[in-house]
Amino acid sequence: MPSINENFLKLEKNYLFINIAKKVKAFTEAHPEADIIRMGIGDVTQPIAKCVVEAMKKGADEMGVKETFKGYEDSGAGYDFLKEAVAGYYKSFGVDIPADDIRINDGAKSDCGNIVDIFGDDNVVLITDPAYPVYVDTNLMNGRKVIYADSNEENNFAAMPDENVKCDIIYLCSPNNPTGSVYTKEQLKVWIDYAKKNNAIIIYDSAYEAFITEKDVPRSIFAVEGAKECAIEMCSLSKTAGFTGMRCGYTVIPHELVVKASDGSEVSIAQLWGRREGSKFNGVSYPVQCAAAAVFTEEGQKQTRANIEYYQNNAKVMASTLDELGIKYTGGKNSPYIWLKCPNNMGSWEFFDYLLENANVVGTPGAGFGKNGEGWFRLTAFGDKDRTVEAMERIKKLLSK
Amino acid sequence: MPSINENFLKLEKNYLFINIAKKVKAFTEAHPEADIIRMGIGDVTQPIAKCVVEAMKKGADEMGVKETFKGYEDSGAGYDFLKEAVAGYYKSFGVDIPADDIRINDGAKSDCGNIVDIFGDDNVVLITDPAYPVYVDTNLMNGRKVIYADSNEENNFAAMPDENVKCDIIYLCSPNNPTGSVYTKEQLKVWIDYAKKNNAIIIYDSAYEAFITEKDVPRSIFAVEGAKECAIEMCSLSKTAGFTGMRCGYTVIPHELVVKASDGSEVSIAQLWGRREGSKFNGVSYPVQCAAAAVFTEEGQKQTRANIEYYQNNAKVMASTLDELGIKYTGGKNSPYIWLKCPNNMGSWEFFDYLLENANVVGTPGAGFGKNGEGWFRLTAFGDKDRTVEAMERIKKLLSK
């Protein structure tokens, strides 16, 4: 009989958001009249920009004509036109990435989850806590030792390295999911120096970079000196351009990034990952790549930036409500997430129930992201403007009682 | 320093088709005037059916309007409309699959490569040889023991189980890539009985099922009694509907399929796979799913069947040329592949070079698919009709000298 990978049995049975969905469903069934506002899952609500839709339709048309039909992509790493568009995007905020160091994927989650395949199971993995559950779960699936760096109220939810701790792989996310906190250039330099001293690799998730507004907050780890010798960066069009249902992202593995195998030979991480992808991935749908490339055109940037500003305005509404109520929070400024301290010392799930029952607003309990999330709560700015205003009015009414 | 997964270093450095591409490139550079006909890689050439293109464009339009915009898919397993369309397709050839046992993916390669994640590394994996390199490589990446069942001239390239051999996981592919051979219902029943006796799971690749013409050749392993308790089936729209560049497929894991964990508890394979996908995959692009669903409409079936018949006619032209030349082959009848014995006792790569140099025709050396492929050669029927005729004329001229 086949043995199963028993590491799976040690995981939480359900992904966090499945548990939330179940709770909301139960509440709705008990209160069918309730007008629920969902600010839990980090999904966007604004439609795809018109020029992006048109580019996808043009790509679809090309697939219907023999002369322009596209079959398998030669490399599976993305068409040059898209890799060059992504390289151009990096250049627009001052970061030089050769197009060949970029691989196109079907969203950051796949690469973020699958990258573990190319590393040995004996690595020690350092993850900031709280964190996006995928970092933890995918390493536990391989039976790896995971240790945590605490992000908490004292450090403004921006964990810094502890020189006494040794590790091999580090996950960082800035702007952070769930806390909305960010690393400055100086802070990232400390992480890079720490990684280099430990010969560790940083897996840097920049999925929310498009929400950065402050100047000293880098939009890529590669904006910081020394990163190319120790970091992999993963980004996505999900939040940048509303691609949660379109599915396209990209991973940057600098050609400078090499490690030593046990026989002392140098191994390129990009080549190792390419070999993995060659056997397990066949590239992204051509019309989706056409749509993605349109995001990086002048018109595409104009249209997608308008959506981001829409969400940023929601975040402002949310932040000012919390300011008014005197509730402590991080995020909202360089991030679509607001991470707030549950009022009256409520626990995360307690506040979840309280808010659901009394304001019919759904958020995400911080405890679902790790131990340092207990007592905290995530709200997203990805909703409809009027509904966000309405949710904040309900919260204000409830909490200022 | 992070250790790498050193199993990667034991793999062939390049995927087979990369090596072929390099050889062809070198030849083209030396002979820029040569008019090369490519019959090597199994990629389709006919455009996507019009109604499928229109469905994708409609899906793209919906993404551009707030009221119809789609973000994350709730389950990541595919929209109900598509799962039900696939279930209906199965029903059209007499196989009952509940829609909930189907997961939509971005092509069979991903699931076929990633399914290894949910099994223990101590499993013994049985693969028929020759085989699609992905089965072997993805198991070697996890350090698993791979054993082979020989498909060869004696058994008409349809390996059958050896009762004296024990294994936990079995890969079968029918119609077979690369040999074009097929299993009859009776032969599959023998494999199913063998799997049940060994408590093994069969991973069944039916990517070429749409090419089956003979009545006693099942289009799904689930057409055979007992399969639901021991088999997973993977299929794709790549060859059925020309989706190699569109990227959509599906995996069927029957809810009946359970194994025992080491503590004796029963574990559902579908649930285990769902947990894996929940952390590492976010579903297929909505407009791609719209396109895929259109394939299974009456009009979609009519249009895509016309493409399959086009390729089947190519296969007939190829088969009759080989018949004329007295060259032995399998496939061509229920398959887009023709697997021929290299003439004059040439080795696979020797014949590759001979054909490339003297007829400017590119095929795939059988040796690239495993030891039993040595001395054999794969040609695909996925090309343009006129070019296929031209290639066969060149081969006839060359080999009847």
What do we call the CATH homologous superfamily of the largest domain in chain A? Type I PLP-dependent aspartate aminotransferase-like (Major domain)
The largest beta-sheet of chain A arranges its strands as: 2-8-7-6-5-3-4
At the third CATH level, what is the topology name of the largest domain in chain A? Aspartate Aminotransferase, domain 2
Greatest chain-chain interface? A-B, 89 and 89 residues
Please trace the helix and strand order of chain A, writing H or E for each element. HEHHEHEHEEHEEHEEEHHHEEHEEEH
* Total DSSP helices of chain A: 12
CATH class of the largest domain in chain A: Alpha Beta
Please state the average pLDDT score of chain A.
Answer: 96
What structural category characterises the helix and strand content of chain A? Answer: alpha/beta
Number of distinct beta strands of chain A? 15
Apparent shape of chain A: globular
Radius of gyration of chain A: 21 Å
Tell me the CATH architecture of the largest domain in chain A.
3-Layer(aba) Sandwich
| Low-confidence runs of at least 5 consecutive residues of chain A | none
Count of domains of chain A: 2
Keywords (chains A, B): Aminotransferase, Pyridoxal phosphate, Transferase
Enzyme class (chains A, B): transferase
Organism (chains A, B): Hominimerdicola aceti
Pathway (chains A, B): Amino-acid biosynthesis; L-lysine biosynthesis via DAP pathway; LL-2,6-diaminopimelate from (S)-tetrahydrodipicolinate (aminotransferase route): step 1/1
